[in-house]
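Researcher: Here's a chain I'd like modeled. Treat it as a single chain, no partners, no ligands.
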Amino acid sequence: MPILNKIRTAFSGARREIAADPVPARLRTALTTFFALDGFLFAGWVVRIPAIKQQTGASAGDLGLALLGVSAGAVATMAVTGRLCRKFGSHRVTVVTGALLSLSIALPPLTGSALALGLVLLVFGTAYGAINVAMNSAAVDLVAALRRPVMPNFHAAFSLGGMVGAGLGGLVAGSLSPTRHLLLLAVTGLLLTAAAGRTLLAHPDPCPRPRPDRPEPASAPRATPPVRLPGRTRRLVAVFGLIALCTAYGEGALADWGALHLQQDLGAHPGVAAAGYSVFALTMTIGRLTGTALLERLGQTRVLVAGGATAAAGMLLGALAPSIWMTLAGFAVTGLGLANIFPVAIGRAGALAGPGGVAAASTLGYGGMLLGPPAIGFLADWLSLPVALTTVALLAGAAACVAQATRNAGSPG
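Model: Modeled as a single isolated chain. Structure tokens:
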């Protein structure tokens, strides 16, 4: 099958890189572990949202406000994390925030009201936003060292982790309480952080990337003081952040509301409802594993435009289809469409402006992922959840239009 052949090609390329230089290979494995862990923990939380919603007695609007705690914590910490990465190194910050994320995942099921849920989600969001800036900054440096567009492969690990986390969550939803389930996830996260963190701490940011406007000598220290970016660079970073926002909105909406849509609007069993995000994460993983080959063959603009258009069509089907299986098919198409847009946008911002560029674009991008769910909740209260989910298609189409309009910005293709 063509897709399986592309996946084999991606992994064979990684093996060749391991044979050529073991240090980048070990770093790539460790960073891939952190991306997978991030997706695994996040998915483990989102598949238990229906149970925690019932436990707290929250309405759709109350739940939307509580989910805003994740948004507020993440967005507030992202710019600060960029500065911490410049000062202490992105590897150290990745390890510390990985431990914080693992600990905070156990908190949501301990709450008994929407207000308390919102407060603990503020802590969870702080850790979630920080680790995403830190590990993306580390990945941008490593991509520059490898000199291949492998950023989608790191995000494929996030999606694969999400698929596994959602799948396991669906399997244990009927037998384990949210408290026991998320406590097990916390222990797993701490163990993986300790294992992968040893490699990152043993190689503190060994692959510095020169600034685009001022190359650094090989002997320059990693923690250089921040410089003021040119106005054009700041505008380009904002453009890439806007593209990331439009598509991440859809990822967050499906993560937090996809299972509820299947269960509440279509009468799906809780296990089938949890599988909705798993299907989305599976197709996103496949799309990202083949993303390097697509970028090398088609270029960034075509990948971004085609991805946005595909996601828009898929989400219209997923939101408005009258049957469970058509909805699952729509989620699958949406995952394929969104797969490579976010990693390309964040990677370009990092190539332009370093950790500060990653932080700025991530603040916009993950802001879309995290502000999307509360927005969906408010729209669901005013209109309906299926109608609210059509906004995902609207923003995916907008991302395609922005990518086409700025096709010559920052890089060819």
